[in-house]
Amino acid sequence: MTIFSALCLFAFTSFAAIALAAPIRIETRGIHTTTPHRPIRRAGVFLRSFKGSELVPSAGEAVIYFYQYRENSPVIVKGEIIGTGLAPNSQHGWHIHEFGDLFNGCASVGPHYNPEGQHHGAPWDHQKHAGDLGNLNIDMYGDLYIEPKVINDRVSLNGPNSIIGRALVIHLGADDLGKGGKPDSLTSGASGERLACGIIGVLPDYD
């Protein structure tokens, strides 16, 4: 072997050793690896009753759905409450509450969701909470079917005031819509104890 050949062989093996030892670098300029933003279009909540922090078994079903077909459009609400033991022909206040925390049952979900710091009111009032939904009107059989409709135009599934991860609560009494003159009329509508609650979660977008 000539001196020239030996030098070439030494240079090649040295380069190979350095290449194998060096970390591999993959050029990714111009390639977008983040997932494009996609607005939330569907959410739902399964409501349960609690005694303290303990779940109360029930043969009934209470499911509420929320739909927002465009990021800034009003939220449509629909659902049904069947066989849960609610009194026939009764009224019950229902609201979105601030926290999705069921550690102590419905007692730990906090106050009404109210990012704008307003008084409690009816869903159609200008002065109202973003979580104010008014009253549920139970039928003669103790059930309720909510046809799709917009209830509160401040409810949103998207943006900084999203209701995702917050709690929906049904109360024992009727909501006086902030007009009853009671000490808690302007905070909770004097709607009484919390009967059932659940955390609002994102549902798959099937469309």
Automatic annotation (TrEMBL):
Cross-referenced Gene3D superfamilies: Superoxide dismutase, copper/zinc binding domain
Keywords noted in UniProt: Signal
Keyword Secreted applies: no
Keyword Signal set for record: yes
GO biological process: one example: superoxide metabolic process
Signal sequence segment: 1-21
Ranges for domain Superoxide dismutase copper/zinc binding: 63-200
GO molecular function, one term: copper ion binding
Name under which the protein is recorded: Superoxide dismutase copper/zinc binding domain-containing protein
